[in-house]
Amino acid sequence: MEVDKGKGEAEETRKVAEADRDTVTLKSSDGKLFEVSKEAAARLSTVLAGMIAGGSIDDNGTDLKQIGSEALENVVDYCNKHANSIPSAALISSSISFNTAPFKEPEEWERKFVDRLSHDALFDLVEAANFLGMERLLDVTCHKISEMMKGKSPDQIREVFNIKNDYTKEELEEIRQELAWAFYDD
Amino acid sequence: MAPPELNGDALAEILLRVPPEEPRDLFRASLVCKPWLRIASDPAFLRRYRAFHPGAPLLGFFYHVGVENHSLPFVPTTASSPFRRLAYGDGDDPNWWIRDCRHGRVLVKSSRNFVVWDPITGHREELPPLPLSFRSSLYSGALVLCAVAGCDHRDCHGGPFLVVYVGDDNEDEDVLSACVYSSEAGAWGTPDSTHLRLNGMIRMKRSLRIGDEIYCIVGLLGLRYQILMYNLAKHCFSLISVPCVYENVPVLMQNEDGSLGFAGVAGSNLYLWSRRVNPEGITEWELRRVIKLRKTLHNADVVDFAEGVRVFVMSTCFGVFTFELKSGRVRKIRKEINCLSFFPFISFFTPGTAPALYLFVILQYYKADVWW
Predict the structure, then answer these.
(1) Is residue B32 part of a domain?
(2) What is the pLDDT of residue A181?
(3) pTM of the entire structure?
(4) What is the domain extent for residue B151?
(5) Cβ(B242)–Cβ(B264) under 8 Å?
(6) Which residues lie closer than 8 Å to A169 by C-beta, 6 or more apart?
(7) Smaller CB count within 10 Å for chain B: N or C?
(8) With bands split at pLDDT 50, 70 and 90, how would you rate the model's confidence at A60?
């Protein structure tokens, strides 16, 4: 009985210590571990916030099977940078009411953060942000991609993003005639 | 290496953030491949798209150059515009005027009746004749309004609307009447009248609606102009004096706090007034802002104020300009200054709402069972 009680207490202490830890460990699909500030993770990701609140965070690395290590590294990098940057009033308000607040322009550091990413990494990060419910990171990454599409023709967009055209020639011609205005700048 | 295949959810998130200010961008994106078109024209996606952005964008202005119109002049404020070569046309009747443009609808007065036109879908609805024989359709104020209470006008194309008409009575020039057409009733209501003699016409500047109240700038005997208010719910009229008389007729606007606003230019300044209740409980005009204008806009005629996007149209001897209230940005939209009035067209314009691509999507829907 004595031993069991001691073990129980140790377990209790370990749980308290875990709850007190200010980081969480995330595990990518390829088994790499990343540490991220618990506060930033909970503030920036609705999915991670739910896992932290629901106690489903694994101290040995919470499995995120849908996210590769490169994308997860970027997610963690973004969270840490976000935790270190002085949040502007605009960002604080947008983090409170994600779904209703209109889009806020990316801050300078967010712009730099997405500018250095390759197309592949950017697309992977959109998927990861979407999966983790990171509205702000989605805004920043998708904004970057929509900027890359701005003013480009469908051909140019396909080239930039390496997308296969599955329209037939006839279909494209038909649309082109109907939507001539969209293909030429005034 | 080919980039990863984006799943539909992530792709929708990207397309969601394509700014509505340049409608061509979402159209072009939808022509990249069929999965992109499927998302960009999906009604649920488009509802989200309209809710996501701060409001419907300004696509340009319809305007008048003369008395006869054979086509519909439109000056776009976007890089590519679907409306540049738009023809309204009314058979053999060139004698038609645009009287108002609001909430995605255009109010046209032909020599017969009023027509409410949706330039995006092409839908037209001709109204029955006015129950009164008004003196002249030009000496009047006319508005088309969305009839849905609390609507944010992102998505009310095709919904119920009202047309409000305020003008002189043909029988008695000391009587002013107002009449409201409801698309739901399909008829004009009983006119309201008041004894009021107008000197000349209700100015060819757009009238304003705030809540149940319609405001028009009117010319009166012995005075240069005043503001006529007609209350839609209480069926009553009142006159409001203006805070200041300017060289050119000012425009009425709704301020961000919901109050009635009044904007006029004198010299190098734009003066913005607000009608508010002071601490003593008296409603009075208050000068809220004085904006120093750049030289090209000195002594400008303030032609219109586009609600929602908060953009002024100003005309000077150098041309016609837009002036964004928030950013102070000035853009020349027209070199010629022979325009009589400007009507801002504010609306989302997306693949699902444009008839051409909409038909294409429907055809695809029936042709291919794979990608739906």
Answers:
(1) yes
(2) 82
(3) 0.83
(4) 96-241
(5) no
(6) none
(7) N
(8) confident
